[in-house]
Amino acid sequence: MKFRLNRIVYVSFVSFLLLIVWAVSGVVLMNRVDIEPSEAVSAKRTVKVLIRTGSESAGLRQIAKVFEKESGIQVEFIELGRDVYFTSVGTQLFAGTNAFDVVFLPNTSIAQFADTKALQPLDPFMNDSRYTDRQTFDVDDFLSTYPYKGATFALPTDISTHFLYYRSDIISKPPETWDELYAVAEKFTKQRNEDSPTRWGLAMPAVVPEERSKIFSSLLWTYGGDVIEENTGEVLFDQAGSISAGSFLNRLVQERIVPSDMITWDFSRTRDALLSGEIAMAAPYWNSAIDMIKQSDSPYKNAIKIALIPGIRDQAGGIYRTPFQHGWMLAMNANAKHPVDAWEFIKFATGKRGGSIYAQFGGVPARRSILSDPSFSSKRPDFALILESMKTAKAEPSLTYYPAMVEIENDALAKILTLHEDPKSTLLYAASKLRNLVEKVRN
Questions:
Q1: How confident is the prediction along the chain (443 residues), in pLDDT tens digits per residue?
Q2: Neighbouring residues of 248: CB distance < 8 A, sequence distance ≥ 6
Q3: Does residue 41 sit in helix, strand or coil?
Q4: Please, are residues 185 and 258 in contact by the beta-carbon 8 Å criterion?
Q5: Which of 10, 41, 52, 100 lies deepest, with the highest CB count within 10 Å?
Q6: pTM of the model
């Protein structure tokens, strides 16, 4: 009886121990269920990148192929059309999405997203030796990094600026000043010269949202004007230089040496007009067009040359010019699921290795060392002109209210381009709206 009792006690004790072991094991297994999926995901090391359809996305895909092989990190692109891109990016970032790790943005979008903490600062990654070899990455090699409030929120994959395009078979020397450009354009406009081989002497893109204000900037800044001073918020759109630039643009339209419907012209329409022989010159016009022109089957492709945008001749005989420039950037979503791997992709894509791949596929990397590399000089003669342009080029202000500012500017330029109002009164009214905007933001 005692033996049976001891046996029952023993069996009960063992069962109790097994129950504890099972319970503890169950907790461990439950924890492993929580851990293992995320470990499995990180083992795959996938970075999701939101990009915009276009030549830039094609170049990034080429970079990604090499990056995947060398890093073992897979890149999943989420590609959106140009017509919905900005609206979608803004909606998702402001909502705090984690659907993508890296996002493709123009430098003018950085302020509004950084200010709302929708982007992750990159400085902690750049300044930590565990993630970045500063000497190899060489931040000083960038033509521009577009910081916001002293922090780096994105790095450029490529750079854009404005050139003068001209038909060298009919124009022996490109005009150096805007006044010279006007005279040449007048000569090669059919309505002003019946013997002109081209219908118009000059054209430039003037559609919204991405062309009108940016194209006008090269004129505006060269004439000594501006829209808003970035650091102080002072409105300069009604100052003498701004009115002079607006008056020159108005004169081009009024004298009919540019297309009457230029307000509808975009990048493609301007390029096609060069290729078809409709226009003698395009300025200010994007640097990226030259590679497309050289690869075309146009009978004029070898005659179409590029030069620095025109400027203003000073008293010493020199030329003052301030070309527009901007960069397309890779930024990290503040809610990125895989921030370290996201940085690895950004570092590679904007680095010298990624930039070299980008250049091979028609891109314009934002690095001095690549644009000055002799191995690209014969294939990419535009690189030398980009470097020269960037010596005096300027970027738009980095402002949280940038979209509202551009909307006011574009409305004013539309009135000038359609001869709806005279430039001075148009810019005075736009400047008053800009001052109200700045005051509203400050309050």
A1: 433 434 433 334 434 333 333 333 333 322 322 323 343 444 689 999 999 998 888 999 999 999 999 999 999 999 999 889 999 999 999 999 999 999 999 999 999 999 999 999 999 999 999 999 999 999 999 999 999 999 999 999 999 999 999 999 999 999 999 999 999 999 999 999 999 999 999 999 999 877 899 999 999 999 999 999 999 999 999 999 999 999 999 999 999 999 999 999 999 999 999 999 999 999 999 999 999 999 999 999 999 999 999 999 998 999 999 999 999 999 999 999 999 999 999 999 999 999 999 999 989 999 999 999 999 988 898 999 999 999 999 999 999 999 999 999 999 999 999 999 999 999 999 999 999 999 999 98
A2: 178, 182, 219, 223
A3: helix
A4: yes
A5: 100
A6: 0.87
Distances (CA, A) of 438 to 109, 260, 433: 18, 34, 9
Residue type (1 letter), 321: R
Q: 77: helix, coil or strand?
A: strand
Domains and CATH numbers, the chain: 45-159+327-390 (3.40.190.10), 160-324+399-442 (3.40.190.10)
Between the two ends of the chain, the Cα-to-Cα distance in Å is: 91
Within 10 angstroms of residue 197's Cβ, the number of other Cβ atoms is 12
